[in-house]
Amino acid sequence: MELITFLLRVAVFTLFAALPSVHAGSTYYDIPWNQTSGETFNVTINQKVDPNSENGRISDSYRVYLALTPPGWGTGPVCWLQWLVPLYETQVNITIPPDAAPDGARIMLSTCLTSAKKGGKRITGWDYSGRTMISGSNATWSQAELDGRNIGDQDEVSCEAYGCVRSCYDQYYKGDSDDEEYSRKSYACWKACARDLNPSSTASLMTMPIQSLLGVGVAVGFLHLIIGAL
After folding, report:
1. Is 219 inside a domain boundary?
2. 3-state SS assignment for residue 220
3. Any stretches that span the bilayer, and where are they (predicted)?
4. Mean pLDDT in residue range 97-103
């Protein structure tokens, strides 16, 4: 019995050791309580990553998402607001399009650590801000969202394209998520939304500006090391 217990403990430890690190609960957010869609506002996001930590070594940037909570379901990121922000940059400008969230919805911001060197690959799980309220928007929950379905892909769809993505599911979702025709057509539709409506600068963010991102990240990280040594 003791041997079995020991083996179970080893198995559990091995399983958790193999899981990717989750960057949850450590990020500091300072965001307005009320936000108006279509207007740009400044938020403070401090990832508080130690340059000497594992996350500090493998990430150099972070992504900012809009997180929604469809009625009766949990909260999750649905689209990105800023594709890549240098890891130690704390001031971020955010604009939530009017068709991204229903008027009066309680929303959150969400972030994850990323690697610009790897084309913006997501490194960690998501972290969340406190809830805030959005006004001046004109979106309506799709039936797919009300049924707890994920629509689009939060790492491919910008919030500028999310209203278009929602309309794809309004058009093709008939209540059966196993419908192959629905899956095929809705997928092709939301991919087209992302291709046509994502900010044109996104492509360049994934190439040349990566060098600038890395330069800023290295400089700030070096500064943190110097301060830590004083």
Report:
1. yes
2. helix
3. 208-227
4. 97
Phi, psi of 30 (to 5 degrees): -130, 105
Kindly state whether residue 171 falls inside one of the protein's structural domains: yes
Give the integer Cα–Cα distance in Å for 76 and 107: 10
Confidence (pTM): 0.77
Q: Containing H/E element for 53?
A: none
DSSP states of 69-87 as a string? --TTS--EEEEEEEEEEET
- Residue 195 structural domain: 21-229
Cβ contact 104:133 at 8 Å: yes
Half-sphere exposure of 77 (CA within 13 A, CB side): 23
CA distance readout (Å), 206 to 142, 199, 201, 202: 31, 12, 9, 6
State residue 176's pLDDT score: 72
CATH of the domain at 127: 2.60.40.10
Count of domains forming the chain = 1
In whole angstroms, give the CA distance from residue 86 to residue 65: 15
153 domain residue, yes or no: yes
Region 179-193: what's the mean pLDDT? Answer: 92
In-domain check, residue 14: no
- Under 8 Å between Cβ of 27 and 127: yes
